[in-house]
Predict the structure.
Amino acid sequence: MRHRSLLILTTAVTAGALTLSACGSRDDDGEDGGGGGGTTVVIGLDAPLTGDLSALGIGIENSAELAVKTANENEEVEGVTFELEALDDVAQAQQGQQNATKLVGNEDVMGVVGPLNSDVGQSMQKVFADADLVQVSPANTNPALTQGENWQSGDKDRPFDTYFRTSTTDAIQGPFAAQYLYNEEKLTKVFVIDDKKTYGAGLAGTFAKEFKNLGGKVVGTDHVNPDDKDFSAVATKVKNSGADFVYYGGEYPAGAPLAAQVKETGAKIPTVGGDALFSGEYISLAKKNAEGDIASAVGAPLEQLDTAKQFIKNYEAAGYKDAYEAYGGYSYDSTWAIIQAVKAVVEENDGELPGDTDEARLAITEAMQGVSFEGVTGSVAFDEYGDTTNKQLSLYQVQDGKHVPLTSGEFEG
Amino acid sequence: MNDLPQQLANGLLLGALYGLIAIGYTMVYGIVQLLNFAHGEIFMIGGFGALTMWLWMPDGTNLAVALPLMILMAVACSVLVAVGAERFAYRPLRGAPRLAPLITAIGLSIALQQAIWAWYPDATKARPFPEFTGSRIELGSVSIQRGDLYLLIAAPVCMIALGFFVSKTRSGRAMQATSQDPDTAKLMGINTDRIIVMAFAIGGAFAAIAAIAHGLRYGNVDFRMGFIAGLKAFTAAVLGGIGNIYGAMIGGIVLGVAEAMATAYVGNIPGMEQFGGGSWKDVWAFVLLILVLLLRPQGLLGERVSDRA
């Protein structure tokens, strides 16, 4: 039966080929630093620039570019010209790690902004730590990245000294939403769904824990595949569970159709999620079914912050085609933090960077710990774990096709 | 278990969608023994064809009015790509070893995805697809989306039309003859090249009809939607007995219902909490496939063919 073994072979070959196809690499632009005189410092950037999550990734890239441009125009660091090298990780941990290796290999790279996804961040950390290259993520929210695997039991241990982030963590993002929904909205029954990824499962976990502590009831849990489109069976389960709302730990490409299909069953209940649902794409995918859904996001609403007004103005003036999205402000601040760290090192070292790459990278990483400035999202500084000291969070609700701020505050756990 | 009728309906609709796509795999395999792995992308291109037609319509057009034109456009795009693939990618390899067209198909699949990604405006992310407005339709304890009515009508109509075509028309009988013995069919004066093109075209048309159902059901189309859907449809075709058109539809429905049942109930079995829910449904679907193939290697409706391959 050659024909049956051919079928098996075919399936195996296809599965392999399709996995590989997911991690195609992009070519280098091959441009070399211009900038007559002075040093050129390259700031690396890693984010999903194509694929489902590209809306968020491109917002990160544009905002970082804006920071680099601003620094060059204002001559923020005398004698240093900054350049951005943006790499696409297609939201895949494996590709992120390859990009990390590539950035480490470029001797001009003195700091890296990104990535978006927590699981990608996890895969990059060690590569950067081995090279003492500082990394500042504008969007990773999984607590384990800075506080170690055992953060939940209070046994915090920073795994990598080179990793910093300007976003707050799921350790407070989930509970923040839980408190609001239980105390303010008086919703007591939740159906918790996650996508099994580092970010989604972590977020759903912290939410459910706090919600139960408050006295709420988890009437059902389920897990979905992030690539799925059909959630009708799960949606029917949600409807029959009698839940007041759905909490989804995951990102908008699956979150939006899930929320839409839950409402399509006739259950008039909102879907609530984390910052990865806080995107205009969420609304354009779920359309009218997005109405009433709630997303938490780190920081105060940019539109309401005085510090962010200049950023928003500059972003609009720069004429970017895509919006800065949820992480634009954080990306700008992450980039600016690297620029400030470079500045601190240059000022210490008689107006130039140490000649040796390894030495310069180590010095910048050490300087990052002391960086403190007023950024787009408020004051930016890092605690002993590399987490931001800014614990501001907000909730947004979709009303008339737009995310409208519901509440904002500091989480007190 | 009071949601059983609803879950069966969910599975049935999903399965009908898989079945429509599976027709393309099964027809092409039945005639040229080629697994056309680019079929998922032909399905995806149908979705973009329909979307293009919708975007050409003036704002405020009623979707029900636009739908026939969208179907025409989707079918035209998919059939064009399917026939083009046959003519330029597969026909030159007709006499080549079996693996050559297979690898070509995989390559073509990736190429088509990338082409849409690169050249269709804004296709790097999911593009919203129009949806029917209005409340759900209640049928006793079961309720379905408005958009699913299309699938509910299209799937049986297509199957009946195809069944009639294959068994009653001259071309259909020529197709059966080619599938049974291409060489003899040729000697009997059948233009087998034309029959092969026809198999690709019918498969493409069914995929296009399925793509519109997909768009209406999930509210968007994206350049990668053919991958998972294609893989599931291929599974459905094997499950039902590859080469058999009714098998493809039945395989699709069995697969869809199995997924819905696995999502809904496996977690309720004591001791199985870990293995239930949406993330395990694919595992259970493939467990079912393996069981069926162990007991009936030729698939549910497949015939044992020893002279092939």
Chain A touches chain B through 48 residues (CB under 8 Å).
